[in-house]
């Protein structure tokens, strides 16, 4: 099993030559110009934490939390170090001392319990409604910026999986059997995304299985430093999926996919976790590599649509899926694909970063909004619910009129029939 603890990552800390080559690519450093907001500064602090020259305080935990986990530093590092892993490991050390009871309850008791999830989704639905009615309330007013309230998705009181039978048969000849890992945001908020994935996969000849024992992938816990909470999620999901004889385990959320494929073998270890992760594949990659020839598409409106694409960090850098989304868009009749500037730069969403650092999140996202506007596209496509939520907020503020769609929902509009 790969090491995930900070002490075990000492070689990665030593590998950092402190050159600052990651600075130009770090969104938080570009925002504040503070050394502790750059990967280099956080590696130095992680080293000090290991040596005991700094204390594991709440202030230090907040410093490490002020990071998008976008992995741009790891991608840019000329020495081949992995600052992103070091930062997450440092959060793990700090969480042992500073993690709150509320965080532990959410990560370990709610996100890992399907009976508790309707209450969490209902609470978020209530907060979203309250923000529209009373935007000046304490705690909610932080999401009101420049006279506009944050755009929230439509949270549901019932999960998407309950709209479908457990087994959705392939339309026509079955060519594969897949388990679809929807993830929390698709299951409880962006449900049309999940329905589109099911439609496309089944139309292309895949038998789709929706396992209702699936729980949160564990990413919120993992990236907050709660390795124990992430492990609970990982073990439950392994029990749900392993042994079902799936050809693939499909994800349509960048963060879920990266978590399942890259982190489960590190968190759990063993043959089962390795076999599980080997079957995890992103929806767009599976579609291009295995299913593209099995479906026909058409432009049902007859209109020419100018579309651009935003690369989610955990999909492009985390799973290496870059060319497939563009190949899909370029093959659709009536779609004019335009590449925006800095398509792979972080949009500033990053899950809890957006909630805890909303002003910074918006400031980082403003650049993305300008690049979308400059592209001239009327639709921006992505494949991460967190990015989707952030882009909805960004476009409403900085390029009104631009629609934000998940890749599956956009593609589903063009699916005609099985060949």
Helix coverage percent: 40-55%
Count the domains.
4
Assembly of the depicted chains: single chain
Total strands: the figure is: 13
> Averaged pLDDT, please?
93
Highest-level CATH class of the largest domain:
Mainly Alpha
Low-confidence runs: none
Description:
Helices cover 50% and strands 11% of the residues. The N and C termini lie far apart (44 Å). The protein has 419 residues and is of the alpha/beta class. It is globular, with a radius of gyration of 21 Å. The chain has helices spanning 10-15, 27-32, 39-51, 58-65, 72-76, 83-98, 101-110, 117-133, 184-188, 191-203, 219-224, 227-241, 254-267, 271-279, 283-291, 313-319, 323-331, 352-356, 358-375, 385-398, 407-412, and strands at residues 144-145, 148-149, 167-168, 176-181, 206-209, 248-251, 280-282, 295-297, 305-309, 335-337, 379-382, 403-406, 415-418. It contains 21 helices and 13 strands. The strands form four sheets. The protein has a five-stranded mixed sheet with strand order 3-5-4-6-7. A four-stranded parallel sheet has the order 10-9-11-12, with helices on both faces. The chain has four domains: 7-98, Fumarate Reductase Iron-sulfur Protein, Chain B, domain 2; 103-149, no CATH class; 160-290, Glutathione S-transferase Yfyf (Class Pi), Chain A, domain 2; 293-418, 3-Layer(aba) Sandwich (Rossmann fold). α3 packs across α6 (83-98), α7 packs parallel to α12 and α15 crosses α17 (323-331).
């Amino acid at each position: 099993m790969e090491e995930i603890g900070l002490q075990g990552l000492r070689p990665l800390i030593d590998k950092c030559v402190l050159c600052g080559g990651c600075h130009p690519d770090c969104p938080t450093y570009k925002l504040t110009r503070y050394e502790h907001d750059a990967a280099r500064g956080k590696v130095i602090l992680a080293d000090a934490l290991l040596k005991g020259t700094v204390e594991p305080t709440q202030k230090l935990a907040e410093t490490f939390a002020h990071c998008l986990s976008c992995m741009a530093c790891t991608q840019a590092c000329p020495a081949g170090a992995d600052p992103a892993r070091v930062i997450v490991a440092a959060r793990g050390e700090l969480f042992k001392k500073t993690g709150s009871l509320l965080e532990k309850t959410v990560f370990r008791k709610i996100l890992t319990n399907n009976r508790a999830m309707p209450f969490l989704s209902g609470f978020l639905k209530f907060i979203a409604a309250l923000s529209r009615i009373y935007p000046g309330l304490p705690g909610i007013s932080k999401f009101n910026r420049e006279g506009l309230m944050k755009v929230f998705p439509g949270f549901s009181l019932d999960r998407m999986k309950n709209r479908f039978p457990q087994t959705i048969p392939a339309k026509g000849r079955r060519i594969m059997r897949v388990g679809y890992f929807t993830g929390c945001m698709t299951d409880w908020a962006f449900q049309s995304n999940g329905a589109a994935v099911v439609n496309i996969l089944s139309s292309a000849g895949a038998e789709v299985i929706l396992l209702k024992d699936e729980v949160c992938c564990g990413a919120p816990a993992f990236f907050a430093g709660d390795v124990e909470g992430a492990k609970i999620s990982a073990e439950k999901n392994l029990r749900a999926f392993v042994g079902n004889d799936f050809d693939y385990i499909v994800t349509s959320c960048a963060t879920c996919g990266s978590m399942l494929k890259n982190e489960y073998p590190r968190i759990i270890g063993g043959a089962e976790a390795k076999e599980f992760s080997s079957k995890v594949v992103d929806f767009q990659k599976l579609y291009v590599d295995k299913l593209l020839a099995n479906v026909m598409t058409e432009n049902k409106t007859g209109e020419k649509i100018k579309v651009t694409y935003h690369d989610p960090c955990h999909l492009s850098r985390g799973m290496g899926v870059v060319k497939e989304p563009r190949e899909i868009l370029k093959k659709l009749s009536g779609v004019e694909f335009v590449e925006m500037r800095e398509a792979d730069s972080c949009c500033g969403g990053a899950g809890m970063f957006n909630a805890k650092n909303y002003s910074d999140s918006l400031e980082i996202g403003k650049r993305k909004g300008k690049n979308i506007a400059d592209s001239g596209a009327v639709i921006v496509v992505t494949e991460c619910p967190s990015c989707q939520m952030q882009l909805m907020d960004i476009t409403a503020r900085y390029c009104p009129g631009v629609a934000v769609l998940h890749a599956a929902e956009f593609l589903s509009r063009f699916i005609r029939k099985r060949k």
